[in-house]
C-alpha cells in the first residue's frame, strides 16, 4: 500500500477488522479499507512525527501519540463528505495541487 510520504511507525486493525489505521513520520493518521480498494483517508495531522496509535475497544475512536508531545483522540469518519469537511475546517489557507495530492483530497471545486 502506498500513501504515507515517510516511514510508517504504527499499524492497527480496528476491532471489527474492517479498517486499518496507520501513523507515520509524515505527521499523518490514515485509514485504509483494504477490502474495497478505496484510497486511504487522512483523518488527522499532528505537528510532528506520529509514533503510536490504539483503537478504543468499540472502534469509535482512535488515539495517536506524537513526537510533538501530544496525544490526540480521533473519531474516524466513514462518510467522505464529513471527512472532507473536517479537513477543510483544519486548513487556514488554500492547499496547492501538490498538497491536495499528498493528502489524497479530491480536486478543488469552483468556490471551494
Shape: globular
**How do the strands of the widest beta sheet line up side by side?**
1-2-3-4
Biggest β-sheet strands, sense, barrel = 4 strands, antiparallel
| Uncertain stretches | none
Output the radius of gyration: 14 Å
The percent range for helix content is 10-25%
Structural class: alpha+beta
Distance between the termini: 30 Å
Number of strands: 7
Query: What value does the average pLDDT take?
Result: 75
Share in β-strands: 25-35%
Order of helices and strands: EEEEEEEHH
Number of domains: 1
- Output the number of helix runs: 2
SSE blueprint and pairings:
Layout: E1 8-13, E2 20-24, E3 28-32, E4 41-45, E5 50-55, E6 62-66, E7 71-74, H1 80-89, H2 97-102
Antiparallel strand pairs: 1-2, 2-3, 3-4, 5-6, 6-7
What brief labels describe this structure?
112 residues, alpha+beta, four-stranded antiparallel β-sheet, three-stranded antiparallel β-sheet, 2 helices, 14% helix
Describe the structure.
It is built from two helices and seven strands. By secondary structure, the chain is α+β, with helices and mostly antiparallel strands. The N and C termini lie far apart (30 Å). It has one domain. The longest helix is centred in the C-terminal third of the chain and has 10 residues, at 80-89. Strands 1-2-3-4 form a four-stranded antiparallel β-sheet. This is WD40 repeat domain-containing protein. Pfam families: WD40. Keywords: WD repeat. WD repeats lie at residues 1-32, 43-75.
Describe, in short, the structure shown:
This protein is α+β, with helices and mostly antiparallel strands and 112 residues long. The protein is built from 2 helices and 7 strands.
Amino acid at each position: 500500500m502506498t500513501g504515507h510520504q515517510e516511514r510508517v511507525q504504527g499499524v492497527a486493525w480496528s476491532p471489527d477488522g474492517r479498517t486499518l489505521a496507520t501513523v507515520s513520520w509524515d505527521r499523518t493518521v490514515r485509514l485504509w479499507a483494504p477490502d474495497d480498494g478505496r484510497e486511504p483517508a487522512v483523518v488527522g495531522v499532528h505537528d510532528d512525527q506520529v509514533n503510536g496509535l490504539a483503537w478504543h475497544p468499540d472502534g469509535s475512536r482512535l488515539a495517536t501519540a506524537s513526537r510533538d508531545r501530544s496525544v490526540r483522540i480521533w473519531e474516524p469518519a466513514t462518510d467522505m463528505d464529513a471527512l472532507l469537511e473536517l479537513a477543510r475546517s483544519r486548513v487556514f489557507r488554500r492547499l496547492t495541487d501538490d498538497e491536495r495530492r499528498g493528502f489524497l483530497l479530491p480536486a478543488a471545486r469552483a468556490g471551494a
